[in-house]
Design goal:
Helix content is 38%, strand content 22%. The protein has 280 residues and is an alpha/beta fold. The strands form 2 sheets. Strands 1, 2, 3, 4, 5, 6, 7, 9, 11 and 12 form a 10-stranded mixed β-sheet that branches. The protein has a two-stranded antiparallel ribbon with strand order 8-10. The protein has helices at 21-34, 53-60, 78-84, 103-113, 143-146, 152-155, 159-164, 189-195, 206-216, 236-239, 244-259, 264-276, and strands at residues 11-17, 40-47, 65-69, 89-93, 97-99, 117-125, 131-132, 135-136, 175-176, 179-180, 184-188, 220-231.
Length: 280
Amino acid sequence: MGDEATPAVDVSVVIVAHSARHELERCLESIDRHAGDLAVETILVDNASTDGTVPWVRGEHPEVRIVELAENIGVAARRFGLEVARGRYAMFLDSDAALTEGALQTMVAALDEHDSWGLVGPRLVGDDGELQRSCRRFPPLLLPVMRRPPLNRWLEDSGPVRRHLMEDVDPNQVRPVLYLLGACQLFRRQLAEQLGPPEWVFLGMDDADWCLRIQDAGYDVVYLPTATVIHSYQRRTAKQPLSRAALSHLRSFLALQWRHRFLRRDALRRQAELDRVAPA
């Protein structure tokens, strides 16, 4: 059959999960409830789950396309979802995140309206409705030490950390930023084809790398607080600083700094320019 027989897809939602069935129950239900009139395909990349995730999804959400991996490769698994995605736009959505009414439509409309915007991220709130600071400036070199025990007791509320988290910026204003947390990101799928999807990270800093590369390609990364997504942000690596996940996050942080060592000055200059411009 020709391409004309294939229904057009507006958004390909790519979710990566490892033994997270309890999280997927809310995540997938939120997509079903809030997709509205958009043509959405949901792609689950299963990182070798052992809790019955795959058979449960097949039984309860047969519309979900499942890509099964033989081992857990972390967020790098997103590339396998992008390889089969067909949407005009692609969305990274964490398994512990959930869409709210109108969020997806608002984000799609923003990219439809602004050709120069390559990626948008919503306002993130916790299960209790509390705001999560999802906009970020370039991470200071000592950030992992400052935000983990024992020094976080004194430095979590320090100037460098607060600046990194953009606590000096009004969280209710639409504005271009350097990068956004990866719990929910909507972007032009062609960028994954053009740049190659993020594939070097097991856990952490993939969001920063992806946003920086999108800006290097000439597109804006924009914070869109008019769309809200719930995110059960745990920061497990900060609570367990000697865990395997925490060490993996630290390696990713160092890798980001190394990968962008020659572009760091450009990133900092871009950041200073973004700080000067008015909200979008």
